[in-house]
TrEMBL record:
Homodimer. FAD binds at residues 3-18, 265-275. GO terms for cellular component: cytosol; protein-containing complex. It comes from Roseicella aquatilis. This is Thioredoxin reductase. Keywords: Disulfide bond, FAD, Flavoprotein, NAD, NADP, Oxidoreductase, Redox-active center. The lineage of its organism: Bacteria, Pseudomonadati, Pseudomonadota, Alphaproteobacteria, Acetobacterales. Disulfide bonds join 132-135. The chain holds residues 211 to 518 of 524 of the full protein. Its cofactor is FAD. GO terms for molecular function: flavin adenine dinucleotide binding; NAD binding; NADH-dependent peroxiredoxin activity; oxidoreductase activity, acting on a sulfur group of donors, NAD(P) as acceptor.
Length: 308
């Protein structure tokens, strides 16, 4: 069995595996796709001390750094169930049929942005279609952007972007915004923001290399309208990859793994880090910090166990 078994090979999982292995304990990492969301990212400019890098490059560096240690890497493995044990071991069942057993488990299965599912969205991802205002906002300085979604994250994104870009159009499907009243009031006080409600985005337009506009259907009149712009931030939900954990440990109403300040979950010996958890602000540097932190928590847990 492993002393520490990490499930998920993104920034959080890689950091956790390295921190655990540096304690000289038996460490394994199982991941569906080593690198995680970083693999889908183009420019990364907020990974502090590295002014500019690209996703695939950072993902390769993550993997290489993990390989520098005695970590058993199990890539292309999907965890399907977590079974807390009464014998001091937690078991992780894999889609392959195998079961892994470990004294401590670190869950770092990340999250995925919900997509609009309209023509052009996938084609122009990273070419004007963006999901993270903290990451990509500055790339649109002085340009025109739309934010899709009128919940808290959409309205926060619109307020944030309004300070950077020339013009923001917030597009909400429903008849009204769902964000907190204080955010809506702030939004409406901004001169360069237009709010469209009852508007269904139907297509992302591009010129072959970049986004040039979008179309939406005015749900009140049924008419389709077209807006010229350079960027589209999709803010209709970040979904944690935790469906497989339902019933095994405590999840928030949004499906995030509930963690305390030490990254402990509701199951003793099981820890979690990164975008899959309730820890706020989903970023690479934060996921790495949380991964490092929970590996130290797991080690603290291990040294308190009475030898069997
Ligand atoms: P993830 O990166 O999501 O990794 C999750 C890991 O778990 C993967 O290896 C996955 O395959 C694995 N996994 C999932 N389910 C299972 C399972 N059941 N069994 C086994 N393995 C599983 N952040 C920034 O700081 N700067 C940026 O510029 C930036 N740009 C971004 C651009 C895009 C397009 C996207 C999508 C995100 C961007 N982010 C950026 C956010 C950043 O990528 C995430 O915050 C970060 O990757 C989270 O790390 P994580 O390790 O928690 O999860």
């Amino acid at each position: 069995p492993f002393d520490v078994l990490v499930v998920g090979g993104g920034p959080a999982g890689a950091a956790a595996a390295i921190y655990a292995a540096r304690k000289g304990i038996r460490t394994g990492i199982a991941a569906e796709r080593f690198g995680g969301q970083v693999l889908d990212t183009m420019a990364i400019e907020n990974f502090i001390s590295v002014p500019h890098t690209e996703g695939p490059k950072l993902a390769a560096a993550l993997e290489q750094h993990v390989k520098d240690y005695a970590v058993e890497i199990m890539n292309l493995q999907t965890a399907t169930k977590l079974v807390p044990g009464t014998d001091g071991f937690t078991r992780i069942e894999l889609a392959s049929g195998a079961t892994l057993s470990a004294r401590t488990v670190i869950l770092s299965t990340g999250a995925r942005w919900r997509q609009m599912g309209v023509p052009g969205e996938a084609e122009y991802r990273n070419k004007g279609v963006a999901y993270c205002p903290h990451c990509d906002g500055p790339l649109f300085k002085g340009k025109r952007v739309a934010v899709i979604g009128g919940g808290n994250s959409g309205v926060e994104a619109a307020i944030d972007l309004a300070g950077i870009v020339a013009q923001v159009t917030l597009i909400e499907f429903d008849g009204k915004l769902r964000a907190d009243a204080v955010l809506q009031a702030k939004l409406r006080s901004l001169p360069n923001v237009t709010v469209l409600t009852s508007a269904q985005t139907t297509e992302v337009h591009g010129d072959g290399s970049r986004v040039v506009g979008l179309s939406y259907k005015d749900r009140a009149t049924g008419e389709t309208q077209r807006i010229a712009l350079e960027g589209i931030f999709v803010q209709i939900g970040l979904v944690p990859n935790t469906e497989w954990l339902k019933g095994s440990l405590a999840l928030s109403p949004r499906g995030e793994i509930e963690v305390d300040a030490h990254g402990r979950t509701s199951v003793p010996g099981v820890f979690a880090a990164g975008d899959a958890t309730t820890a706020p602000y989903k970023q690479i540097i934060i996921a790495m910090g949380e991964g490092a932190k929970v590996a130290l928590s797991a080690f603290d847990h291990l040294i308190r166990q009475v030898p069997a």
